[in-house]
Design a protein that fits this description.
The complex is a heterodimer of chains A (361) and B (516). Chain A is an all-alpha fold and 361 residues long. Chain A is built from 13 helices and two strands. In chain B, strand 7, helix 6 and strand 8 form a beta-alpha-beta unit. Classes of the chains: A mainly alpha (361), B alpha/beta (516). Bound molecules: adenosine-5'-triphosphate and magnesium ion. Adenosine-5'-triphosphate binds next to strand 2, helix 1 and helix 14 of chain B. Chain B: GO terms for molecular function: ATP binding; ATP hydrolysis activity.
């Protein structure tokens, strides 16, 4: 009997390091595989895949309109991703960007409703602060529970998403509903002074600068600053953080506050820049997609912006596919799912190496 | 004795970055023998054994088990083939009981865990090999020695026929080591093949049949233990030049002012139980105070309390005249209190961060490392380069995660960081654990130098030879109390120390004092 068990031809091994070039290959390979398998699926459904891909590209990146739409989607995606990326840096699993995003939107809408003034500067500045605080406290609460009683933040942040969304529905179906909306659940349109400017007659708004500024600040503070070092130590090894005299508990709360505040700010930008009124459908899961984006971008703030743009294009392209080729929404979602699947699959190859060995007996 | 060859590794090569951790290594193991692996820190011992137990795959080379070539894709494959390893840092799940830890990762997977059957087998195995542990007690309650027994039992439980012990004795007391060796001898008679890694030549001679020496990843030679001398081995390990004997402090400066003074301090452990119960001690300039004792008697908690990492519930702690009873760890570092923790990967280092980031760990908040809002990484890198050089730390680079370093080199990194500047007090727990002969001598010299320069040193160790060699004063800790101190301790005190370690006080103080 062959005591040596099966002779294996495939070896799977943990990688100890990976070069930039290898990383690029892996990403390119996963994108190509994703497109190929998507093509197969489209073909099986009787659609010409190259036409469909052309449509997606055309809708999202080929002309000014497409690019502007993509950018409009990039803004909330990027900000939510920056938010969760900050928490992930400390190995705090903030799954609640969606809820913090909604709380930010709710807070600035409330501000518009109850403290309206004509001065755009006053209005926008106060809305920025209110929304950040709302998202911040929504996050900090989960952070506090974790710091104080070691309550798992994955569960609390996730649960608080549902609470936030129910609160949103309570208000838009209830006392905040616009009496002139013919029964649709939406608030009245924001007055002029509560709007962020849009550019070039498109839906790209000043929230884009929020995203860029936040990314820059995070890059400086977290990647280069003393505090960033501290939260990385706390996240990687809490006992070593004690040894270095780092106050991990306080940092957990602070990180969750800031993370929530960025997501809350995203909610404000989405309200004041894009929708300009609160309606239930504005929260379409950016806070969840953000988790994937942050991860694919390896938590790097600038990379997050680019990856968000890519995802924005994916979404806009998908919409175009629905409209131009009359594909059902579910098909588009499957296609997007496939692309994600392969991108995340590529992650595996960033940490593991598979080699084939051919041995003569 | 049967000369059956259990393992035959041929031409094993494994490269990390550009370091050849193993370079064309041949290694074999026979049934009924103990084969020792010797070599300096970073010589490639753990790497070779990690390959044998399926954790790494070799870049080149083959492994044969009883004449059949095998390829292990994971440690599971190796366990299924009867290869068991007890790692340098063995890992058990602390919150589970002994038997649950055994059942975990069992090769024959049952859906229903059989508690009674498992416990019965554990009892049977532990009786047979003299590894007594209670299968029902939770792992966190066990001493390091007991945990190691569990780790060995676990391998026997999984029907290992080949047992790899990676520096098993560095964490054991002499008595525990003695016990371990009895077990090993017994297993040998039953036909097990055992690989034994250690830096202590005395132990190697006591237990092994053959010795293979590695140097910088290559085999220097494989010899019969009966035919070789310690000098020869030392030369093989480090190349010509040999190991410098350490010059033990002849210059005996008289002890100076008290620096760190603990008065009747009481400290609790992580489980909330009193671990240090009214300990008073004084650390003076130019003096090394040694603390002996079986591990788990509160030494770790005492050290943490002195380093500002653990709450002092009662009593006072002074740094010269300043009351530092509730000072933070950071304050203590700023005062010059350095601390070398026992648990290097768990406390002393951030394994996933790189060498420079670990060098910065205890200093980053002050200039020159801190510049306003930022950390001056150029400065840290410069310092790191200097420390790597002067402590002879073997690493592929400064920006490499420290989990990639060998056990001994991780320890050297901690020592380099803690002993490099502004030290008034050094609290050192097992500072030479896992270090090779040369590095051990180097560290001991460093501690003596620290003392000569006016430092106060607290040395906590289980290595009595080390304590006797270095300490000016020796205290023994038992159940959270100090059992009295011995001045200028030497070998003539060993019996007395042994009694104190067993809780029998010889001079009125400590020990059997009434509990309040
Ligand atoms: N996972 C890894 N990635 C990169 N380098 C590694 C890795 N594991 C080991 N090395 C390198 O390989 C060399 C040999 O390491 P190894 O752990 O085998 O040494 P060792 O002989 O066990 O030393 P020690 O006595 O200090 O435990 C070291 O230089 C180490 O830095
Ligand atoms: Mg080792």
């Amino acid at each position: 009997m062959d005591r040596g068990a099966k002779k294996s031809m495939i070896k799977i091994e943990k990688r100890f390091y990976i070069s930039k070039g290898q990383e690029l290959y892996i990403i390119l390979a996963s994108i190509i595989l994703a497109l190929l398998s998507g093509a197969l699926m489209l073909r099986l459904m009787g659609v010409n895949p190259w036409e469909a891909y052309g449509m997606m590209l055309k809708g999202s990146l080929s002309d000014f309109y497409g690019i502007s739409e993509t950018l409009a989607k990039t803004i909330p995606l990027a900000m939510c991703s920056l938010a969760v990326g900050l928490a992930f840096t400390m190995v705090v699993w903030n799954i609640g960007a969606e809820g913090q995003f909604v709380m930010g939107a709710l807070a600035c809408t409330a501000f518009v409703r109850y403290f309206y003034t004509d001065s755009a500067i006053v209005m926008l500045a106060s809305m920025t602060v209110t929304s950040s605080l709302a998202g911040g406290f929504w996050g900090a609460f989960a952070g506090f529970l974790k710091a104080r009683w070691n309550v798992n933040e994955i569960i609390t942040t996730l649960m608080m998403n549902y609470i936030a969304i129910l609160l949103l529905q309570y208000f838009v179906y209830g006392s905040w509903r616009d009496p002139t909306s013919l029964g649709f659940p939406m608030t009245p349109v924001f007055p002029e002074s509560a709007r962020l400017p849009q550019f070039f007659a498109s839906r790209v708004h000043a929230g884009l600068f929020f995203a860029l500024i936040v990314a820059l600040i995070l890059w400086i503070v977290v990647r280069k600053g003393v505090w960033g070092y501290e939260i990385r130590v706390s996240g990687q090894n809490p006992r070593a953080a004690d040894y270095a005299g780092i106050k991990s508990a306080r940092n957990v709360i602070l990180v969750m506050f800031l993370s929530g505040a960025i997501a809350g700010l995203a909610g404000m930008a989405e309200m004041a820049g894009l929708h300009r009124r609160l309606q239930p459908g504005f929260a379409v899961g950016y806070g969840y997609t953000a988790i994937i984006i942050a991860w694919l971008a390896r938590l790097h703030p600038f990379t997050i912006i680019f990856v968000s743009f890519f995802f924005g294009a994916l979404f806009v392209g998908g919409e175009n596919l629905q409209i131009a080729m009359r594909l059902p929404l579910s098909t588009v979602q499957i296609l997007q799912g496939l692309i994600l699947f392969f991108l995340l699959g590529g992650e595996f190859f960033r940490s593991y190496r598979i080699s084939l060995t051919f041995k003569k007996r | 004795m049967a000369e059956k060859v259990l393992v035959n590794m041929r031409g094993i090569t494994k490269t990390f970055y550009d370091i050849k951790a193993n370079d064309d290594v041949d290694f074999d193991l026979k049934a009924g023998e103990v084969h020792a692996l010797l070599g300096e820190n970073g010589a490639g011992k753990s790497t070779l054994m990690s390959i044998l137990c399926g954790l790494y795959q070799p870049d080149e080379g083959t492994i044969e088990l009883e004449g059949h070539e095998v390829v292990f894709r994971s440690p599971k494959d190796a366990i299924a083939q009867g290869i068991g390893i007890v790692h340098q840092h063995f890992m058990l799940v602390p919150s589970l009981t002994v038997w649950e830890n055994m059942a975990l990762g069992s090769a024959e997977r049952d859906f229903i865990v059989k508690e009674n059957a498992t416990c019965a087998r554990i009892r049977e195995l532990s009786a047979r090999y003299g590894l007594d542990v209670d299968p029902l007690s939770p792992v966190w309650q066990l001493s390091i020695g007991e945990q190691q027994r569990v780790a060995i039992l676990r391998m026997l439980f999984h029907k290992a026929k080949i047992l790899i012990l990676d520096e098993p004795t560095s964490v054991l007391t002499p008595q525990e080591t003695e016990k371990l060796f009895e077990t090993v001898k017994h297993m040998k008679e039953e036909g097990f093949g055992i690989v034994f890694i250690s830096h202590k030549l005395k132990e190697v001679f006591e237990i092994s049949d053959r010795i293979t020496v590695l140097r910088r990843g290559r085999v220097v030679g494989t010899l019969s233990a009966r035919e070789v001398t310690a000098e020869k081995l030392a030369e093989m390990m480090v190349g010509s030049g040999g190991v410098g004997e350490i010059k033990v402090g002849v210059s005996r400066k008289p002890p100076g002012k008290p620096i760190l003074i603990a008065e009747e301090i009481r400290v609790r452990n992580d489980k909330g139980l009193v671990a240090v119960d009214g300990v008073s001690l004084t650390l003076r300039e130019n003096q090394i105070l040694g603390i002996a004792g079986v591990s788990g008697n509160g030494q770790g908690e005492l050290a943490e309390a002195l380093a500002g990492m653990r709450h002092i519930e009662r009593g006072r702690l002074y740094f010269t005249v300043e009351d530092v009873t509730s000072a933070s760890a950071r304050r203590m570092v700023d005062l010059g209190v350095k601390y070398i923790p026992a648990d290097r990967k768990g406390v002393g280092l951030v394994p996933n961060m790189n060498v420079a980031e670990n060098v910065a760990l205890r200093k980053y908040w002050r200039p020159p490392y801190r510049r306003g809002f930022f950390i001056d990484w150029d400065e840290v890198y410069r310092d790191s380069g200097y420390l790597i050089e002067s402590y002879d730390i073997l690493t592929p680079g400064i920006d490499v995660a420290v989990r990639m370093l060998s056990g001994g080199n991780q320890q050297k990194l901690i020592l380099a960081r803690e002993l490099s500047d502004n030290m008034k007090v050094v609290i050192a727990m097992h500072p030479t654990w896992g270090l090779d002969v040369k590095a051990t001598a180097f560290v001991r010299e460093k501690l003596l130098a620290a003392k000569e320069e006016g430092g106060a040193v607290l040395l906590i160790s289980e290595d009595l030879d080390e304590l006797l060699m270095l300490s000016d004063l020796l205290a023994v800790m038992y159940r959270g109390r100090l059992m009295g101190t011995i001045e200028a301790p030497d070998r003539s005190h060993i019996e007395k120390i042994g009694l104190m370690m067993a809780g029998i006080a010889s001079d009125g103080q400590g020990g059997k004092k009434e509990h309040d």
